[in-house]
Amino acid sequence: MDAPDTLGAHELAGGYADGRLSPVDVAAAALERIAQREPEINAMWVRDDPDEVLARAQEAARRWDEGRPLGPLDGVPVTLKENLARAGVPMPSGTAGVEAVVPDVDSPVARRVREGGLVVLGSTVMPDWGMLSSGVSSLHGVTRSPLDPRWTTGGSSSGAGASVAAGYAPLAVGTDIGGSIRLPGTWLGLATLKPSAGRVPLHAPYLGRAAGPMARTARDCALLMSVLAGPDPVDWTSLPAEPTDWEDLGTEVRGLRVGVWTTAGYGVEPEPEVVAATRRVAGALADGGAEVVEVAPWLTQDLLDGVNRFWQARSWADFARLSPKQQGRVLPYVADWVRAASELSGTQVVDAYHAFGQVQARTVAAWAGAVDGGLDLMVSPVAPCAAFPAEQPMPYPDEGRGMWHINFTMPWNMTGQPAGTVPAGTTEDGRPVGVQVVGRPFDDLGVLRATAWLEGADPMR
Questions:
Q1: Same domain, 172 and 278
Q2: Within-domain flag for 238
Q3: Closest of 345, 311, 315 to residue 327, by C-alpha
Q4: CA-CA distances (angstroms) from residue 198 to 129, 234, 397?
Q5: Which of 9, 20, 62, 289 is the most buried (most CB within 10 A)?
């Protein structure tokens, strides 16, 4: 039997069921792993009390012994991003500039994880207000890749991704408003899913925001979705109940219509090694019998600039209410980005908001127009580049290009379509490269099936 930190959630649950593994031993190993690696990686905002963690694991062990587990993941360790509310756990949103909110109730995600018997190890870090694609935070410092501490984890689900890549837990829940689950996915070599809008209920729904699984395999992402998915009255945008067998990942790709998109047409164009990885994935699908077609660019720089401008204005509304002392504690890169909106007029803010609708309309039209009847899937880069230095706030931080790397991920937050990542090799210097797999509206299971198939495809190994 492999060490607990190398086993996936599915293997752990199987070991609990047949008695080969104990949730208590697994939790103890996870705590030891965190103690060993956390000083360098810096993934955890709140580490839950070890006695409480072990008590949760003991309860899970008792349920397995009695043949009454709470669900398929009872006793499996998990981490939750710090902006997913847990009763009594401070939520500073990654910044030293605010007094942390302390919620008195669990978010739907935290509640479902608890009700499913998963062993929560703690809350993971994020950068200031989640507005960076790195692990740089004015409150937490720098979060580093467990694969190589010189590299970024990606963000804003920086600690969540790092907790899985470091072997703290086989599962994590992150959040994503423009790529924040998928970017750590590509730079840490993980399988991830940004679910359909409303598939996983949020305690604070917002246009484009989603919460979803981060793991080593699509199968483990699917198992976590079986716990997370479903409507909740707390989230007025949540989708109606839909019976889904999340473990039914056996499928072929033969006959699927797959678009391949490697020229963004705006933002920063992808580097050759990233394009090659995407082409490798497209080739594997074609070899499996899928119909693969080229997709031309459909979005323009002014729309990305509008989305960025509106996010700046939204953040300025929060930043401007802080005292000068509090503003001085915010990460300087983020503070400068926010201040760029201070002189915007109401007309300019509304015009920026309209960019969201244009992205939605043009993306839906491009999907439908790619082939007759539309696409079943699309594959593309996740980001234009591989992992950059850990201390750097963004991959392209200068010349106003701060958001130019979300050109492949952001559209799917606006349409609400499911989009995940699949590891697709490494660059010449060993940095992981992932490829994005996008599905039809509401076809989360289709994305997971495709990524699971790709994980086993010969060209991908």
A1: no
A2: no
A3: 315
A4: 21, 11, 32
A5: 9
Residue 72 lies in a domain: yes
Q: What are the CB-based long-range contacts (under 8 Å, 24+) for 269-272? A: 269/384, 270/381, 270/383, 270/384, 270/385, 270/408, 271/384, 271/385, 271/386
132 and 75 within one domain: yes
Give yes or no: residues 32 and 105 share one domain: yes
Kindly state the average pLDDT of the residues 5-15.
Answer: 95
pLDDT of 2: 65
Q: Give CA torsion, residues 85, 90, 94, 95, to 10 deg.
A: 140
Same domain for 145 and 287, yes or no, is: no
Q: Evaluate whether 95 touches 129 at the Cβ level (below 8 Å).
A: yes
Output the CA torsion 438→439→444→445 (10° steps). Answer: -110
Q: Give the model confidence (pLDDT) of 120-151 as tens digits.
A: 999 999 999 999 999 999 999 999 999 999 99
| Number of Cβ within a 10 Å radius of residue 105 | 13
Average model confidence (pLDDT) for the chain?
A: 97
Taking only the tens place, the pLDDT of each residue in 199-248 is: 999 999 999 999 999 999 999 999 999 999 999 999 999 999 999 999 99
Check pLDDT > 60 for residue 1.
no
Position 195 in a domain = yes
Specify whether 161 is located in the same domain as 270.
Answer: no
- pLDDT band, residue 459 (cuts 50/70/90): low
Task: Produce one character per residue of 106-138: b if its CB has 16 or more CB atoms within 10 Å, e if not.
Answer: bbbbbbbbbebbbbbbbbbbbbbbbbbbbbbbb
Q: What pLDDT sits at residue 251? A: 81
Is 414 a domain residue?
yes
Rounded to whole angstroms, the Cα distance separating 298 from 301 reads 10
Query: Tens digits of per-residue pLDDT, 379-405?
Result: 999 999 999 999 999 999 999 999 999
Instruction: Please state the domain count of the chain.
Output: 2
Name, in order, each residue with C-beta under 8 angstroms of 75's C-beta and a sequence gap of 6 or more: 12, 13, 16, 23, 26, 27, 57, 60, 61, 63, 64, 69, 117, 118, 119
Domain range holding 377? 257-301+341-460
